From TrEMBL:
PANTHER family for this protein: CHAPERONIN
Compartments where found: Cytoplasm
Protein name: T-complex protein 1 subunit gamma
Role summary: Molecular chaperone; assists the folding of proteins upon ATP hydrolysis. Known to play a role, in vitro, in the folding of actin and tubulin.
Family: Belongs to the TCP-1 chaperonin family.
Organism listed in the record: Zea mays
Gene3D superfamilies from the UniProt entry: GroEL, GroEL-like equatorial domain, TCP-1-like chaperonin intermediate domain
PROSITE patterns in the cross-refs: TCP1_1, TCP1_3
Annotated spans, Disordered: 531-558
Length: 558
């Protein structure tokens, strides 16, 4: 029995060693991803220039946009990149913070892995720290009145102050607040839902100045009328009908052959087609529309009948644009002209106008009475600038949406993280058992955000962090943090540097849960076949002898 004991011990230690190696590799990969975008945190952050697969150039400091373009083979690093995308889809901001925080959580766990702490113990301590951190957020959060435009402006401005468009002051914040309040839908109990993807369209038109950008009280589409000479390009208070069916003769599902015996039958066939289209147009014209928009085709004959009746028509419109027009002017999209009713006609628009901007024609349906969809028209010097402004605007609109959804504020400038860190340090003394040390390490990891902010401002990090820790020592001065522009230690309320509660809570949850998931991986098994080197011969398949082969073999004489 004693002889076999060392074998079991050796197997166990080998297993532990391989698990520790995987943990180390995962932690190193996560730290590498965090280090890539660490310098893009804060208002004085660096920009990154990215070369994408198509050979284009992207200049940005948005964490998600940078990581999206990076091609990394390591599975743990890929998992970290996924965090940023999740954060962007969920709350639209905090994409850099979440990676920096997750990287730091894994970094402080490395010391415990080296001391043979079990990952489950570390994860238990981290989960406990997360619950306590969220409780601290609830305690220091401040309610905000969503109808107070000044407070909303301050919040959106502080969130995009770290971006490229921070230099343009209130412009982007104004656009974001106007767009989200226009497209918002009341859910009751003071809650509002805003579907940014569906009902707010950002239209980028190169040329002009950024200051010319505005939110339209309606919709703008990149289309011209179908018969420019015959149809009106400007209509005041138009009656609008929206269709998603073709106004042309129906074609057969598959190839159709018609055999005609007489020459007159051909004429009858043509007349039937004309009659069908005439009836379609008559059903539409019965409701006296000024503007007919369809997602499908519009035949020449239909255009003739509509223009003769003084109706303007637009064809082949995108489904998403048609939905936005319906929301803006109060029309209902109809599938068949026979089913049209008076209630389906949109009368909410104040003006339909086609304008030429640059080389292209754009149709505007604006001055709507109560639009539930809108278009943000962005003007700018070049496509690169416009793309970056659009990314910043998406973040700003997400922040405005989060506040409308959950109207609570937290201090920015690293003040929230410092308060959470100080509170967790105090609570760590009451945590029993081996979980006490990882819990305390998690408290220290939260300081990564203010430390990175101080670094990116070019300040003396040790001095600034010592001062901040002194101010937050007893969990007091919850609103004291770093002003990322000047590098001063100030009260965030005075400087109006705020963060949305939804963004902060989501950042903490995503970062800690991801760190726990990566810590619990103890082996990476590849299911990918290795590619064979060119010129190498293929491995021989094992051959199985059949009964016939055995019979054909020559017998060796004895």
């Amino acid at each position: 029995m004693a002889l076999h004991a060392p074998v079991h011990v050796m197997k166990d230690s080998l297993k532990r060693e391989s698990g520790a190696k995987v943990h180390q590799a995962n932690i190193q990969a996560a730290k590498a991803v965090a280090d890539i975008i660490r310098t893009t945190l804060g208002p004085r952050s660096m920009l990154k220039m990215l070369l994408d697969a198509g050979g284009g150039i992207v200049v940005t400091n948005d964490g998600n946009s940078i990581l999206r373009e990076i091609d990394i083979a390591h599975p743990a690093a890929k998992s970290m990149i996924e965090l940023s995308r999740t954060q962007d889809e969920e709350v639209g901001d905090g994409t850099t913070s979440v990676i920096v925080l997750a990287g730091e959580m894994l970094h402080v766990a490395q010391a415990f892995i080296d001391k043979n702490y079990h990952p489950t113990v570390i994860c238990r301590a981290y989960t406990k720290a997360l619950d306590d951190a969220i409780a601290v957020l609830d305690k220091i959060a401040m309610p905000v009145d969503v109808n107070d435009r000044g407070a909303m402006l301050g919040l959106v401005k502080s969130s995009i102050g770290t971006k490229f468009t921070g230099q343009f002051g209130d412009l982007i914040a104004d656009l974001a607040i106007d767009a989200t309040t226009t497209a918002g839908v009341d859910l009751g109990q003071g809650m509002r839902e805003v579907d940014i993807k569906k009902y707010i369209k950002v239209e980028k038109v190169p040329g002009g100045q950024l200051e010319d950008s505005r939110v339209l009280k309606g919709v703008m589409i990149n289309k011209d009328v179908v018969a420019p000479g015959k149809m009106r390009r400007k209509i005041v208070n138009p009656r609008i009908i929206l269709l998603d069916c073709p106004v042309e003769y129906k074609k057969g599902e598959n190839q159709t052959n018609a055999e005609l015996m007489k020459e007159e039958d051909w004429q009858v066939l043509l007349e039937m087609e004309e009659e069908y289209i005439k009836n379609l147009c008559a059903q539409i014209l019965k409701f006296k529309p000024d503007l007919v928009i369809t997602e499908k085709g519009l035949s020449d004959l239909a255009i003739h009948y509509l223009s003769k009746a003084g109706v303007t028509a637009i064809r082949r419109l995108r489904k998403t644009d048609n939905n936005r027009i319906a929301k803006a002017c109060g029309a209902v999209i109809v599938n068949r002209p026979e089913e049209l009713q008076e209630s389906d006609v949109g009368t909410g628009a104040g003006l339909f106008e086609v304008k030429k901007i640059g080389d292209e024609f754009f149709a505007f349906i604006v001055d709507c009475k109560d639009p539930k969809a809108c278009t943000v028209l962005l003007r700018g010097a070049s496509k690169d600038v416009l793309n970056e402004v659009e990314r910043n605007l998406q973040d700003a609109m997400s922040v405005a949406r989060n506040i409308l959804k959950n109207p609570k504020l937290l201090p920015g400038g690293g003040a929230t993280e410092l308060t959470v860190s100080a509170t967790l340090k105090q609570k760590s003394s009451s945590v029993e058992g081996v979980e006490k040390w990882p819990y305390e390490a998690a408290a220290l990891a939260f300081e990564a955000i203010p430390r990175t902010l101080a670094q990116n401002c070019g300040l003396n990090v040790i001095r600034i962090m010592t001062q901040l820790q002194g101010k937050h020592a007893n969990g007091e001065n919850a609103w004291v943090g770093i002003d990322g522009r000047s590098g001063d230690i100030v009260d965030m309320k005075e400087r109006k540097i705020w963060d949305s509660y939804s963004v902060k809570a989501q950042t903490f949850k995503t970062a800690i849960e991801a760190a726990c998931m990566l810590l619990r991986i103890d082996d990476i098994v590849s299911g990918i076949k290795k590619k064979q080197a060119p010129g190498a011969s293929a491995p021989k398949q094992p051959q199985i002898e059949t009964e016939g082969d055995a019979d054909n073999e020559q017998m060796i004489p004895e």
